[in-house]
């Protein structure tokens, strides 16, 4: 197996995916502030870097197409059919392709049912109400981002075995 990219190894895909996942987690952390700009930036970071996690993992296909597809096919099918994953996929695409999402940021509120300061709401898109075949009870943007980051964490963790196997085969091919 020859390296398709100079200086890269199969582990490089996992390293990039991990970096993007850390950026998505930082975005999620920013969403818990009361600074409306940081909250909005955090939400957008979850969408943009979250999708970058999957793109980095898809790079494994260049190293071992069969092993990658065996591992990734069920994930890909699930993501394509999952309303939460589709929501973030479309949001990221819109953000990066100059379709500015119509958002509102709660600057203040009064009463027991008031949303917390910094809460983001989308006015131009329907929020997902289901994830992995189960209803989403709390469709706040913060909770949707939490669910998406947790999903990505599970995806990355599931890749460890296939990445290790691909790396081992690649190293064996390099030395022999």
Structure description:
There is one protein chain. Helix content is 62%, strand content 6%. The chain has helices spanning 10-30, 36-58, 65-81, 83-96, 141-175, and strands at residues 103-105, 120-122, 130-131, 134-135. Strands 1-2 form a two-stranded antiparallel sheet. By secondary structure, it is mainly alpha-helical. It has five helices and four strands.
Short summary of the structure?
The protein is mainly alpha-helical. It contains five helices and four strands, in the order H-H-H-H-E-E-E-E-H.
End-to-end separation:
10 Å
Tally of helical runs: 5
Q: Element order, helices and strands?
A: HHHHEEEEH
| CA gyration radius, whole angstroms | 19 Å
Broad structural category? mainly alpha
Keywords:
mainly alpha; two-stranded antiparallel sheet
Layout of secondary structure:
Layout (H helix, E strand, L loop, with lengths): L9 H21 L5 H23 L6 H17 L1 H14 L6 E3 L14 E3 L7 E2 L2 E2 L5 H35 L1
Antiparallel strand pairs: 1-2, 3-4
Helix pairs in contact: 1-2, 1-5, 2-4, 2-5, 3-5
